[in-house]
Design goal:
Length: 487
């Protein structure tokens, strides 16, 4: 490369791009409209709302607030597009989806920086996990688009129609990919709504989709809060609702579509047990505990938020855990050395702080790492509670923050009983040297995903989803594809 050549911008490969914390080449508009029928259009109400950077409390941009008429417009565009999109050959659909995946890789740096600015997660996570995994979902499902007959032999797979997709703020781009990629591969069209605190990467994705040449109306992305979400759910011409978010809203959605022909998948809260046996490789287990609860500030539905340690090793594990917590860097999410970034919103920080108070009032013993946190922005120190019991609210309820509730156990029967005695059933972790123990537990734990000697590992090929109040239906893998097909 000659010296005179201009500095490479964000569409260069990672290695050639400037350091992630350099935000000079990131293009964020002051105001975003709704992406309907392949173009950005003004909202009917002409109203906009602000999205903030939770690490600085500064306003980043304004986004359109879609009302029922905008939702109707988006659904109509998706319906018209469905007629031709569903008739394209799978191979043709696959080409479009591959193109989205490749463009996402090319613009990876821009996506990562915007994700971190808008939502507060450490840049290392958006760069190394969220964005590459989102692209991988598009690659993975693109590969199935022309193989539906092989994937579901003799079952005459047909797309459902228009899918309404509502996603949360903890993995904004990744959740958009989880939802859009299988829907398109199966031949459906989409109306997607990102969460109100993190709309910017979905809107970047809308720009990417426009640039990719995907036929108009196949993907529509509209912004707004709960009211907009409800308008999608209640629209009569939607065939399927896919929702990820709180259990409360999930229950509301289930009620409001009861009696309609709409199909539904719900991906709701969790309160996972992470179980450490005395024969586990303890140093690795401590890394798994840290990753399980402090990854993405604990804003993870499958977070390992309940820790069970076998009594004989409890003292040593807790000592190692406290030592490791001291090394966590809490602060500027844009710094590539940061481990724990900003809490996503003021509301979420208030909720977490309330639970920390509740934990103390319930008589549990709190420990926080001695780090300092920035004066501005929404931050929470990594926190753990010792001496908790099954009846404590901090053990039963989803906190969705960097707060770990610790219990000890003696026997395998006791820990299975405690792990399952909870309204949720999304995920669990098991740490032991014995394969037989792992098999025993995977059959007895009522959790959709069980990790053995690892935690928070995600892959497009493996299905993800829960039992009980964690929802129903699976995303990822062939199961995730089946959820968008009439079989
Ligand atoms: P939420 O469930 O209200 O928000 C998730 C999405 O649903 C957002 O896009 C929101 O605009 C939309 N929404 C809200 N009300 C709706 C309605 N009536 N109909 C259709 N869509 C609607 O979650 P929120 O309030 O942001 O967070 C509250 C708590 O929920 C968190 O503290 C956490 O415990 C839990 N949560 C769990 C998530 C998970 O992945 N399991 C994700 C987000 C939140
Ligand atoms: Mg924001």
């Amino acid at each position: 490369m000659s010296k005179k050549e201009p500095k490479l911008k964000f569409n260069a490969a990672w290695e050639l791009a400037p350091a992630p914390e350099d935000t000079k080449h990131i293009s964020i508009k002051k105001q975003y409209d709704l992406f309907i029928n392949g173009e950005f259009v003004k909202p009917n109400s002409k109203k906009y709302f602000a999205t903030y950077n939770p690490a600085t409390e500064e306003k980043i941009a304004e986004v359109a607030d879609a009302d029922e008429r905008d939702v109707d417009k988006a659904v109509k565009a998706a319906r018209v597009a469905f007629n031709s999109w569903s008739k394209l050959s799978g191979a043709e659909r696959g080409k479009y989806i591959y193109r989205i995946a490749r463009l996402m890789q090319e613009r990876a740096r821009e996506f990562a920086v915007i994700e971190t600015m808008d939502g507060g997660k450490p840049i290392r996570e958006s760069r190394d996990i969220d964005v590459p995994l989102a692209a991988n979902h598009f690659f993975y499902y693109a590969g199935w688009a022309d193989k539906l007959e092989y994937a579901f032999p003799n079952r005459n797979p047909k797309p459902l129609g228009v899918a309404g997709q509502i996603i949360p703020w903890n993995f904004p781009l990744l959740m958009a990919a989880w939802k859009i990629a299988p829907a398109l591969a199966a031949g459906n069209t989409v109306v997607l709504k990102p969460a109100e605190t993190t709309p910017l990467t979905a809107l970047k994705l809308a720009e990417l989709i426009r640039d990719s040449g995907l036929p108009k109306g196949v993907v529509n992305i509209i912004t707004g809060a709960g009211k907009t979400g409800a308008a999608i759910v209640n629209h009569p011409d939607i065939n399927k609702i896919a929702f990820t978010g709180s259990t409360d809203v999930g229950k509301l959605i289930q009620k409001s579509i009861a009696g309609s022909n709409k199909k539904l998948t719900l991906e709701l809260g969790g309160k996972a047990a992470n179980i450490i046996f005395e024969d586990a490789p303890l140093d690795q287990a401590v890394e798994g505990i840290i990753n399980g609860i402090f990854f993405n500030q604990g804003h993870v539905c499958c977070a390992g938020s309940r820790l069970f340690i076998q009594e004989s090793v409890a003292d040593v594990v807790i000592r190692k855990l406290k030592d490791r917590m001291e090394t966590l860097r809490v602060g500027d999410p844009m710094d590539k050395n940061t481990d724990v970034g900003a809490i996503n919103s003021k509301e979420q920080l208030m909720k977490i702080s309330e639970y920390i108070k509740i934990g103390k009032n319930e008589g549990a013993e709190m420990y926080q790492s001695s780090c300092s946190i920035p004066k501005k922005g929404y931050f929470c120190k990594p926190t753990l509670f010792l001496n908790t019991s099954q009846s404590h609210r901090i053990v039963q309820e989803e906190i969705f923050g960097p707060v770990l509730a610790i219990q000890t156990f003696r026997t395998i029967e006791e820990v299975i009983e405690k792990a399952n005695n909870i309204p949720y059933g999304l995920s669990a972790g098991v740490w032991t040297d014995k394969g037989s123990k792992i098999f025993n537990l995977t059959t007895k734990l009522r959790a959709g995903v069980v990790w053995a000697n690892t935690y928070n590992k995600f892959d497009p090929t493996s299905p993800f989803g829960g039992y009980k109040e964690s929802g129903f239906g699976r995303e990822g893998g062939l199961h995730g594809l089946a959820a968008y097909l009439e079989l």
